[in-house]
Design goal:
Elements: E1 4-8, H1 14-29, H2 35-45, H3 48-56, E2 60-66, E3 69-78, E4 83-90, H4 99-108, E5 114-119, H5 123-132, E6 135-145, E7 148-157
Parallel strand pairs: 4-5
Antiparallel strand pairs: 1-2, 2-3, 3-4, 5-7, 6-7
Helix pairs in contact: 1-2, 1-3
């Protein structure tokens, strides 16, 4: 049986985390949002400098480990009324193995409702979140700069 675990990312590992993010975002958003927007979001939110700043501000990032290999990552932030699951990405070679479900189960052990945003065009992710038990509670559009907009569902798991 395969082993899945979460490993908290340290500041010394942000370069590696950023490299994983750059790979998985390009896979995940191909055909959903323009390539230029993906590159902009990566540079703005997932560069080593941005990740360092987020961790120092209280975000917690975790490598998703599958049989000893990094298979993706998750990022959470404690909000007053919930845990905000800021990131949950599984590399293409590791999908359909229960890794995302495992990560959500581990995060749920923190005993708070979980909230996330997901691109409205990302049907694969929406289906996966619904299978785990998330429900869409509203829609949100956010201007992220440079003329780019995030068009998301807000989903919650109680």
């Amino acid at each position: 049986m395969s082993e899945i675990s979460l490993q908290e990312v340290t500041l010394a590992q942000v370069e590696e985390l950023s490299a994983v993010a750059y790979e998985v975002w390009r896979e995940s958003y191909a055909g959903i949002v323009p390539r230029e927007q993906v590159e902009y979001m990566l540079d703005k939110f997932q560069s080593p400098a941005a990740l360092t700043e987020q961790i120092q501000a209280g975000y917690h990032y975790y490598f998703l480990i599958y049989d000893g290999k990094i298979s993706g990552y998750a990022g959470i932030r404690q909000d007053p009324d919930c845990l905000f699951l800021s990131k949950l990405y599984v590399l293409a070679d590791f999908r359909e193995r229960g890794i995302a479900s495992y990560a959500v189960q581990e995060i749920a052990k923190m005993g708070r409702p979980i909230r996330l945003t997901v691109n409205r065009g990302n049907q694969r992710a929406i289906s996966a979140y619904k299978k785990i038990g998330f429900i869409a509670v509203k829609e949100q559009q956010a201007d992220i700069g440079e003329g780019f907009v995030m068009d998301d569902y807000i989903m919650e798991l109680s």
